[in-house]
Automatic annotation (TrEMBL):
Signal sequence region: none
Cofactor annotation remark: Contains 1 topaquinone per subunit.
PTM description: Topaquinone (TPQ) is generated by copper-dependent autoxidation of a specific tyrosyl residue.
Record-linked InterPro entries: Cu_Am_Ox_Cu-bd, Cu_amine_oxidase, Cu_amine_oxidase_C, Cu_amine_oxidase_C_sf, Cu_amine_oxidase_N-reg
PTM-bearing positions, type 2',4',5'-topaquinone: 536
Region (Disordered) residue spans: 70-104
Cofactor(s) listed in the protein's UniProt record: Cu cation
Keywords of the record: Copper, Membrane, Metal-binding, Oxidoreductase, TPQ, Transmembrane, Transmembrane helix
Protein's UniProt name: Amine oxidase
Similarity comment: family membership: Belongs to the copper/topaquinone oxidase family.
Active site, per annotation: 454 (proton acceptor), 536 (schiff-base intermediate with substrate)
Biological source species: Sinanodonta woodiana (Chinese pond mussel)
Length: 828
């Protein structure tokens, strides 16, 4: 549609992730406020009442455009009709000149698609089954205490690969749909987390609940954070916050808790050991006024730790308070005494600082004091589909230009594609986001050494509704996915994935000679999935090209996590503009350095599942050495004009292995099928090409390096195993002394020749925040490419219309002609 930007409506409820907000408000209310100069209305819902404490969870119900400042119709799209007759255009069914707008989706097939994400209905069914089986102990299904058992997460448990392949390729029976459910069992004598397989979900009559873990296997103290725990932490800290009130007022611009401040609990893992739980917390300004969104750019130099193991919150206590990095103070009274005694260095933020946070520092509003750039008041370039979509979506199966694949997703690991085929050949069985790791460095109590593994918090576990016309063109089709909200014990729907054909407006290939010329305009299908994980927004993208290439890209946007800039930090250097951990980025903020490493599962099936993994070494050296790789030659033939050359050395990996990119020893990674050859007798294959990427630099001795094992390699190859579904465990960073599901454990020397090989690809970037990262980070990206490698006998695009012309401008052929039309305002 032409309105811009359009925010989709949808329940936007922060779940148990880092965005979780629980607050002590005696009010169940719905408020809204508006900025006169602008057009957004934020609807804020505060709901939830728990055991005497009222708990508010803000449901950020999207942002609706409320003015009538609509775009003009997109007239004059300037269609240039081509003069060829290769393809006769079908008559578009225009509606007042609007482009035809066929709905490419058939959503009635959603639940009958093998890999479709679990729907709200299916999650309800699974939770009913667990409820009836007494796996859940909460009254009214509303968790009120950690001593109860309730569902943390729920998502599709994909069928066994063998069963899916049988079904898709060998007339096997259709695999049923199952939920993988994580239950936090606080009601058990020895509390723990259990995972279950629940289903088949078609009808509840024959559904089973099968445990996937053993009781006690997942220690209660290595569980992810959830809303009930945050409520208990807030409750526990109430007294301490009261004791700190005068200190807070004096230090932080007359701020009061909880009106102006919130407590941020998610500073890396809760302790370094499986059996312990120590939650480091930091105070931060509620930059978004009363809403605590993911505002972790305004954190303050006041921190402490809660000892909070087990489910008995009476055992919990606070300790290790720090103020401006001074401490630890055993108790809050120790800190207050020291503060009052003036034996402590103090900070005093200037009056008025706090009030400037929201509009001046945090909100991404155009600076109206600046003149518009020339013509910036006019709409920018746009593209549209003159004859409607060229892709179809049946349930969650997508077809476009001889590509086909299934879209799946889950709240912990995010989006995944299955059974990717091109021109009738299977290319990959699974291509899935698995985890995102961030390791921070900063000179701040409570926050130093933060490590996030985002699957632990859930990559798609809050509302990730797409912003039409911002995230994707308005003509994109959108698919729903669902997530389980542990606090409400209920599933929610969101329009989270968009699919569209993109006009690259460039040549996919071209050549212009003196007598002929030709090229192909690059168009590709995009599956785009923006997700929000607390402060950061990630955009995952899968791009399918006409020539058989497939790009997987991860982009980062959103807010950084900042740290307090302490001008008088006694161990800072002479240069007050930067320290060992980053730059000063504003008056009271530094941008701590960290990385973003994205881990993907890439289960290539080149033609079928019997593949091998070849490393093609790109070498350089003496001619003789090059020739000797192939024969027993002893003399260099005379036609070589240099003594040195580049050459290839082919290595078929016999055993599971992990690789790091190294510019001094460049390699090509190729998955080949030794049993099928192209017309020229060469093994057909696909190359895995990591794009520009960073590498893990923490040493092996770092306690988190096992949990983070997937960040040590860029490309890892293992033998496919049903029980090695992901490259990390969501619990390992919370039990780094006893990790159980990390990538290195899969590297157990198994043979991978002519086997079902799986690749694990990790790419990412280093982030040294600079002043341009405030308020919004500069968007950066990394990814990898899957590229046909002797897979086809020739360039794979010559079954497509293209442009070619001979001397004298005789057009030999061209793309289909089209009629100019006005961008359709239909949304699918
Ligand atoms: C294309 O047009 C040319 C000249 O108008 C004509 O000779 C030729 O038969 C046409 N080809 C097709 C496939 O219609
Ligand atoms: C501090 O805030 C209180 C209200 O919370 C107000 O009464 C007082 O005037 C404020 N003091 C200053 C110095 O702004
Ligand atoms: C909870 O902890 C408190 C304080 O240690 C103790 O007195 C109480 O007995 C514990 N409750 C249970 C159920 O273990
Ligand atoms: C208060 O400060 C004085 C010195 O300024 C020191 O002797 C005394 O121990 C301090 N008291 C506390 C409770 O820190
Ligand atoms: C998709 O999700 C939205 C937002 O929750 C909901 O309004 C809509 O009905 C859903 N569509 C389908 C087909 O389930
Ligand atoms: C794949 O390999 C297995 C044994 O390793 C063999 O049984 C099977 O026939 C092979 N399949 C193909 C398509 O080559
Ligand atoms: C090279 O020489 C070795 C031993 O002399 C022999 O076994 C081998 O077959 C030779 N290889 C080729 C390619 O001629
Ligand atoms: C190649 O190596 C030979 C033997 O080391 C040497 O004599 C010759 O000059 C070299 N040629 C060049 C072009 O460097
Ligand atoms: C891996 O397995 C091969 C074949 O069984 C064996 O020769 C080799 O020593 C093993 N390597 C390791 C590191 O265990
Ligand atoms: Cu970053």
């Amino acid at each position: 549609m032409a309105n811009n930007p359009g925010f989709d409506k949808g329940a936007n409820i922060s779940n148990s992730s880092r965005t979780y907000h629980v607050k002590h408000e005696e009010q169940t209310t719905s408020k809204c406020f508006m900025f006169c100069s602008h057009v957004f209305v934020l609807l804020v819902f505060v709901v939830g009442l728990v055991g005497g404490i009222l708990i508010g969870i803000f449901a950020y119900h999207g942002i609706n455009e409320t003015t009538s400042c609509q775009n003009q119709n997109n007239q004059g799209t300037g269609a240039k009709t081509s003069n060829n007759n290769l393809t006769q255009p079908t008559t578009p069914q225009t509606n007042n000149g609007q482009c035809p707008s066929r709905n490419p989706k058939d959503e009635t097939l959603y639940e009958s698609t093998v890999f479709a994400p679990l729907t709200v209905n299916e999650m309800k069914l699974a939770s009913d089954i667990l409820w009836q089986g007494s796996y859940i102990t909460t009254v009214d299904r509303t968790p009120r205490s950690l001593k109860e058992s309730y569902i943390l997460y729920m998502y599709l448990l994909p069928p066994r690969k063998e069963d899916a392949i049988k079904y898709f390729y060998h007339n096997g029976i259709k695999p049923g749909r199952y939920a993988r459910v994580h239950i936090q069992r606080g009601a058990e004598k020895v509390p723990d987390i259990m995972e279950y397989k629940v289903g088949p979900l078609g009808s509840s009559s024959n559904a089973n609940v099968i445990p996937l873990t053993r009781p006690g296997e997942i220690h209660f103290n290595s569980r992810p954070y959830d809303g009930v725990e945050v409520a208990s932490l807030n409750h526990l800290l109430d007294g301490d916050m009261k004791a700190l009130a005068p200190l807070i007022r004096e230090s932080f611009d007359n701020a009061t808790f909880p009106e102006d401040l919130f407590i941020f609990y998610f500073n890396g893992p809760p302790g370094l050991k499986e059996a312990e739980r120590e939650t480091r917390f930091v105070l931060g300004f509620r930059g978004f006024r009363m809403i605590q969104d993911a505002d972790i750019i305004n954190l303050l130099p006041l921190s402490g730790t809660v000892y909070n193991p087990g489910s008995n919150t009476s055992d919990w206590y606070t300790h290790s308070y720090y103020y401006l990095n001074q401490g630890p103070y055993r108790t809050v009274s120790d800190l207050v005494a020291e503060y009052n005694n003036n034996t402590i260095r103090k900070v005093r933020l200037p009056a008025g600082y706090r009030n400037k946070l929201w509009k001046k520092r945090l909100f991404f509003e155009r600076d109206h004091s600046l003149p518009l750039r020339e013509y910036a008041d006019r709409p920018g370039a746009r593209s549209y589909m003159p004859h409607g979509p060229r892709f179809r979506i049946s349930g969650t199966k997508v077809k476009w230009m001889d590509w086909s694949f299934h879209i799946s997703a889950g709240q912990l690991r995010g989006p995944a594609l299955f059974d990717i085929r091109f021109k009738g050949n299977r290319i990959a069985y699974e291509l899935a986001v698995n985890d995102i790791a961030l390791a921070y460095a900063m000179d701040a109590s409570g926050q130093n050494g933060i490590i996030y593994m985002d699957a632990t918090y859930g990559i798609m576990e809050r509302d990730n509704t797409i912003l039409r016309d911002v995230d994707c063109p308005s003509y994109a089709a959108a698919l729903n996915t669902s997530y389980w909200h542990s606090f409400f014990q209920k599933a929610f729907d969101m329009k989270s994935i968009c699919i569209f054909e993109e006009d690259g407006q460039e040549a996919l290939w071209r050549h212009v000679s003196t007598t002929f010329a030709g090229g192909m305009r690059n168009r590709y299908l995009v599956v785009r999935v923006p997700v929000v994980i607390a402060n950061y927004d990630y955009i995952f993208e899968f791009k399918f090209y006409i020539d058989g290439k497939l790009y997987t890209v991860a982009k980062a946007s959103g807010y950084i996590q900042a740290s307090f800039w302490d001008e008088y930090n006694p161990h800072a250097g002479e240069d007050k503009t930067r320290d060992a951990f980053g730059y000063r980025i504003s008056d009271y903020q530094t941008g701590p350095i960290h990385d973003h490493m994205f881990g993907f599962k890439v289960d290539m099936d080149v033609i079928d599942s019997n593949n091998s993994f070849e490393v093609v070494h790109w070498k350089a050296g003496d001619i003789l050495n090059a020739l000797k790789t192939q024969s027993n030659i002893t003399n260099v033939p005379p036609y070589f004009i240099y003594n040195q050359t580049r050459y290839l050395e082919y290595e078929t990996m016999r055993r599971e292995a992990g690789f790091r990119l190294n510019y001094d020893n460049q390699k090509l990674f190729v998955v080949v099928n030794e049993n099928t050859r192209n017309k020229w007798g060469v093994k057909r294959g696909y190359q895995i090409v990591p794009l520009s990427t960073a590498a893990q630099s923490l040493p092996e001795v770092h306690p988190a390096m096992k949990a983070l094992a997937f960040t040590k390699y860029h490309v890892t190859v293992t033998k496919h195993k049903e029980e090695e579904q992901y490259l990390s465990s969501i619990y390992d960073i919370n039990r780094m002394d006893n990790p159980k599901g990390y990538l290195d454990r899969m590297l157990d020397n198994e043979s991978i020749v002519n086997e079902d090989v799986v690749n694990w690809v990790t790419v990412g970037f280093l982030h040294v925040p600079t002043s341009e990262d405030l308020p919004m980070t500069v968007r950066v990206e990394s990814g990898f490419l899957l590229k046909p490698f002797n897979f086809f006998d020739t360039t794979a695009t010559f079954d497509m219309p293209q442009y070619s012309a001979m001397q004298g401008n005789d057009i030999v052929e061209n793309e289909p002609t089209f009629d100019a039309c006005v961008e359709s305002n239909r949304e699918y």
